[in-house]
Design goal:
single chain, 452 residues, mainly alpha, disordered C terminus
Length: 452
């Protein structure tokens, strides 16, 4: 291409730009009142607008658009939840000790705060509470282990006699299982164990790895618990100051009420577990069931998982009674376990837990099931307190988005299980909230009350 051709193309492009700019100016002038045509009384030519094709809003029905909007948002929530669970799985060695430390801090925080209010240094109060906890825990474990070792021989002989009794019942009972069939089942079990010896070995190695994680988590829990007891309020205020200014006070107030809910839940759970352990333990001692103290301790630990834990540990006690003392003692133990659980479900839970942590039984079961699926036993342990805390925080933020305190300065909690009580409570809260809608909420000079 010659220089003349290039010059011709440049001139053409320059002319086209000028023509386009002139057309834009004329169109803009035609839309203004000061156009020369308006002074001369000449009506400018109308601007022809070509109809654009219909948008998606006009083509799709409203129901389809709403469903689509909810669908992609739901997918976003699922993806975010999956990523969160993956992070929890990767960091479980750190997160589980921190969560356990939070639960222990909720249990012992009133004691530490009481010592500080009496003039003791915060670090000294936290260290004293931590030391007392270690003494109680290791003292109890030592007593349980000593009891187990002292009774293991007696239990072994009783278990052998119990198994022989069960075999004779299977042979002479309604099942009519012969000794040959029992021996065949035993041989199959031994063959299965032999074939899976490699899996058992790898499981032992995995157990060794888990033991190392437990030791690491134990010391991390102690370290974290000490600082939660000493600087829990300062840590929470620091985290709240990282949020935008508008969200600081509502988040801090929601956390304050959630913490009170967690404290109430942990204290009530410990008391209920203690009553369960004492009731079932006394029955085991009276019936002279072997390992009564370890079984009572197992019931105490199992009661921290509502509904499921007490049932499983009670079944273990019944099984030990069946093997050691026969079906009569096992039936009596079963009656004791059922009676204690009825006392827990109908008296202790409503009376001790109170309205602040009154969760629906279906929500409790689903939370425990989901927690066990996600994080095993630890997930089942923390599922219900996590649900109670989230319930309190969400209910507070929905009703008090500006961060104003509740009328009674207590956590919103959940609805009572009785419908009439729930409606009465709702009417009371609505009346107190709408008594003077023009009155602004009281100013909050701090992110968190000092006692929290």
């Amino acid at each position: 291409m010659t220089s003349g051709d290039l010059s011709f193309l440049e001139d053409t492009l320059t002319w086209m730009r000028a023509f386009r700019e002139q057309a834009r100016n004329r169109l803009a002038a035609a839309q203004r009142d000061d156009h020369p045509f308006a002074e001369e009384g000449v009506t400018p030519a109308p601007v022809v607008v070509v109809d654009q094709p219909h948008g998606v809003e006009e083509v799709l029905p409203r129901g389809v658009r709403v469903a689509g909007a909810w669908a992609w948002r739901f997918i976003a929530f699922v993806v975010a939840a999956y990523i969160l669970l993956r992070l929890v799985s990767l960091l479980h060695v750190v997160l589980i000790p921190v969560v356990i430390a939070i639960l222990l801090a909720a249990l012992f925080q009133p004691v530490s705060t009481g010592l500080v209010n009496r003039g003791m240094n915060r670090s000294l109060a936290a260290a004293l509470v931590l030391l007392a906890t270690l003494v109680i825990v290791f003292g109890g474990l030592g007593l349980i282990v000593r009891t187990f070792i002292s009774q293991i021989d007696t239990l072994s002989s009783q278990v052998s006699d119990g198994i022989n009794e069960v075999q004779s019942w299977l042979a002479s009972g309604p099942l009519h299982i012969s000794d040959a069939q029992l021996n065949d089942y035993v041989d199959r079990l031994q063959q299965t164990i032999t074939q899976n010896q490699g899996a058992l070995t790898s499981g032992a190695l995995s157990t060794a790895t888990t033991l190392g994680e437990v030791v690491t988590g134990f010391f991390l829990t102690l370290f974290t618990l000490f600082f939660f007891l000493r600087d829990g309020g300062h840590i929470w205020r620091f985290l709240c100051r990282l949020l935008p200014r508008e969200a600081r006070v509502p988040t801090a107030r929601a956390g304050h009420y959630s913490w009170k809910t967690l404290v109430s839940y942990v204290h009530a759970t410990v008391l209920v577990a203690f009553v369960d352990a004492v009731g079932i333990g006394i029955g085991l001692f009276v019936l002279q069931i072997p390992l009564a103290l370890p079984l009572a301790a197992l019931v105490f630990l199992g009661a921290f998982i509502p509904v499921v834990g007490a049932t499983v540990t009670g079944a273990v006690a019944v099984l030990v009674a069946l093997v050691a003392k026969g079906w009569v003692s096992a039936l009596i133990v079963l009656i004791i376990v059922i009676a204690v659980q009825q006392l827990e479900g109908h008296v202790l839970q409503p009376l001790i837990m109170g309205r602040a942590v009154a969760l629906h039984p279906l929500a409790v079961i689903l939370a425990i099931a989901g927690g066990i699926v996600v994080a095993g036993i630890v997930g089942g342990l923390i599922a219900v307190p996590l649900l109670a805390v989230l319930n309190t925080a969400i209910r507070y933020l929905v009703r008090h988005p500006s961060g104003a305190p509740t009328p009674d300065r207590e956590p919103p909690g959940t609805q009572p299980t009785d419908d009439d009580q729930a409606e009465a409570a709702d009417r009371t809260q609505d009346a107190s909230r709408t008594a003077d809608p023009h009155e602004p909420p009281p100013a909050d000079t701090s992110l968190e009350p000092r006692e929290a």
